[in-house]
Amino acid sequence: MNTATERHREWAAANKDHLHEYRRMRRIANGEKIRAVAKAWFAANPDKTKEYSKRAYLKNRNKPWYKAAAARYREKHREQAREYQRAYFQRHKERVQERRIKYETNLKMELIAAYGGKCACPGCNESRWEFMTLDHIYGDGAEHKRRLKTSRMVYREVRKLGYPKDRYRLLCFNCNCCRGSMGYCPHEREVQHAHNP
Ligand SMILES: [Zn+2]
Ligand SMILES: [Zn+2]
Fold first, then answer.
1. Which of helix, strand or coil describes residue 135?
2. Phi, psi of 132 (to 5 degrees)
3. Which ligand minimizes its atom distance to the CA of 126?
4. Per-residue pLDDT tens for 98-150?
5. What is the value of pTM for the model shown?
6. Which long-range contacts does 58-64 make (Cβ < 8 Å, 24+ apart)?
């Protein structure tokens, strides 16, 4: 049996390119109308719209054209996004701050645990987490902080590097500050003195 629908389907398959171009021209010619109809449909079917756009997002989010479009969208709506973030922060100030403190504390705890949990200065027994700082063994701490802006970002980078023990270690505030400003820590001298009285 060769119905009209089947005949049309055959024709469409054989003239794919032609059809594609025809539809493209129609879309361009009727852009306004098509967009208006789509808009009305979206407004009338919010649940389906949500479901479809979620499905499209999951399907396309890693494709280059999607990423490019998303970047263009962000660029175009940068001010709105910033305004939204500001408003969100104002609305949920306490929750946002709470979450940030929790995140940063966890990050620091993980770092402290990875570096042995106590001050690495010989003769110092400080192990209270509040006193712990990350020491850059090669003295590049200031540069590191300048590049990454916050200690949160520094900690994140060190975690990403797998907590290398040859570049960083844990020092308490006292030992770290003293080494920074004096170039030594009294602990070292005391330890030396104890070994060679
Ligand atoms: Zn110390
Ligand atoms: Zn010390």
1. strand
2. -80, 140
3. 1
4. 999 999 999 999 999 999 999 999 989 999 999 999 999 988 888 898 999 99
5. 0.59
6. none
